[in-house]
Records
---
Amino acid sequence: MFQIAHVVTDRGSKYAVSGGPAHSKADALALIKTLKRNKRFAKATHNTWALLCSEGGPIKNDDGESGAGVVILRMLERAELTDHLIVVTRWYGGTHLGGDRFRRVQDSVHAYLTEAPDLPDSARP
């Protein structure tokens, strides 16, 4: 699993992004379980994720960060990246970000698509 431990900080909230190959919801949940073995990620406020399966369609989970899974999913669709899970992790910093939280999710996914190894060139921004 590729991981960028610190992508951005906004008003105290910290963001990280992780991901790896997954072909089903079961694969995605197994990768999330692996991620949460790290106590830091297990204690995060939100671990939002999305997966665009080549067989079975889109799967997402907001993990309490309403709408964030859709943002990740849209970016996966634009990048035409299938069978690859992306997880955006947020540690809440005490200040509500409003709509800016979606920009931070986009920033995190963009960083992942730019830096993750073994992605097709067509998936890169």
---
Amino acid sequence: MYNRIFSNQLRFFILTCCCFALSFQGIAQEKTYQLSSHILDISTGKPAAGVTITLSKKENNDQWKIIDEKKTDANGRIKDFLPQTSNNLGIYKLTFHTKPYFKQLGQQSFYPFIEVVFELADNEHYHVPITLSAYGYATYRGN
């Protein structure tokens, strides 16, 4: 009888360890990204959802190459630009396509789009948000 109880406890322990190892492996293999962005519409105090943002990289010939294009989520965020690699160094540009956003709100905007140019100089995470209104904007390096 003791062997059966010990055997069941051992099976449970081994099963628990395997499940933990598999869940840890899933976490360890989760994809990370080096760049994110966010838009806060300061005229409403709310995130700007559904805004297209284009990511471009400056090439050696001084031309811009489009790398990715996404729409902000309901929280005004894009969390998954540039998969984390060691080769993302360079000069980048985020183009925030604001005219359609303001048109949808029934407003005119002085800025049909906003371009923010910045340099990735290391492998750290960069967050490049803007605060926005129809006649002004600000940007900064967030975290």
---
Amino acid sequence: MPLLLAAVAGVLVLAALAALARTVFSVIVVSGPSMSPALRPGRRVLVVRRGLARLRTGRIVVVVSDGDGRPTASPVGDGPRRLLIKRLAALPGEPVPDQVRDAVPGPAVPGGRLILLGDNPGLSTDSRVWGAVPVAGVVGVVLEGVRLRDAPLGPGRPVGR
């Protein structure tokens, strides 16, 4: 009987750890060329959710967008939501990068906002078009250096741009 209880307890602990891991980590499949060459289409990346404390200039982040593909502050609401993947170019209070001066007025990034840029400027829609985006729209931070098996590209597979 004690052996059975220990086995059940072990299974429950593993289930709890698996559930916790799903709330902390996500796997995102990159689609589109906006982050090439760093992240090519089909590349799987591990994202730490609730990574707001990990926000640093130069890190790659995942943000939620509205149905028009524009980053939004809310991951819930009416209409379709998509995930976008971009590099964090500037945090609140940091100088506005030269590439986005036309879209973001003022010398510094406003409070509660971020500047996001794709690594492939010719093929990226980002803060050069959107301006500063809400910090609240950040879903998580990509763990760089973690190599996951790439996903085969096909209909319905890619979920992050």
---
Amino acid sequence: MDTLFPAPGDKAALEDGDRLTPRFGPDGLVTCVATDAATGEVLMLAHMNAEALAKSIETGIAHYWSRSRRELWRKGDTSGQVQTIVEMRVDCDQDAVWIRVRVGGDGNSCHTGRRSCFYRGVPLGADPAEGVVLRFDRADDA
């Protein structure tokens, strides 16, 4: 379904051109990072197929492709956590998207009930072979 967008051009067109020509992976997806428009906090990482990207652009509401459910997903349809897009950017080679959003409902973005899906810290300097113990951000705990 990526015929919704023109085919990517050469390196110069991708990096310096003025047309959105997303480079969808073999699975038909691009990665999308969503951050809070006001604070810059990383809220979630998800994936978009051509339809999700097109609907996000057309409506200003974040749409994603659920890899587990294998279906289009409008963020907030069941949770009320609608993500209104304030700004959308594409990376240098157009295979990743960054959206700055305002979150509706309770303001959370994670299906666990937390504001961000990135609620666990990984301590640096630990020996992975010994098992790394994650640090939970209790301020954001459900």
